[in-house]
């Protein structure tokens, strides 16, 4: 996890084939799943957020391609250490 703004934005552009200036959040996790970096772009520039776990691992849900789209809720669960694949939201009754 040595890459910073330029390295991660190049990775997004060249390997993931996405535009790093789109405003989407791009999350990267190291092989040991103990460090996470999140890159995104705002109107004024790039933002880079990092978290290193002192104990345990991130429970990262991956597809065969190594990429996965996450909702904001899924991202919050991942950051908080909750396994996203086991999380399921039930439909709630809403009165008229």
TrEMBL record:
Keywords: Lyase. Coiled coil: none annotated. It comes from the Bacteria. The keyword Ribosomal protein does not apply. GO terms for molecular function: lyase activity. PANTHER family: BLR8292 PROTEIN, PTHR36455. This is Isocitrate lyase. It comes from Halomonas hydrothermalis. The lineage of its organism: Bacteria, Pseudomonadati, Pseudomonadota, Gammaproteobacteria, Oceanospirillales.
């Amino acid at each position: 996890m040595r890459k910073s703004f330029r390295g991660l934005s190049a990775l997004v552009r060249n390997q993931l084939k996405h535009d790093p200036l789109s405003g989407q959040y791009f999350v990267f996790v190291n092989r040991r799943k103990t460090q996470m970096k999140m890159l995104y772009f705002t109107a004024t520039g790039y933002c880079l957020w990092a978290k290193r776990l002192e104990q345990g691992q991130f429970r990262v849900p991956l597809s065969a391609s190594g990429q996965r789209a996450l909702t904001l809720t899924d991202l919050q669960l991942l950051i908080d250490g909750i396994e996203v694949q086991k999380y399921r939201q039930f439909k709630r009754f809403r009165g008229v």
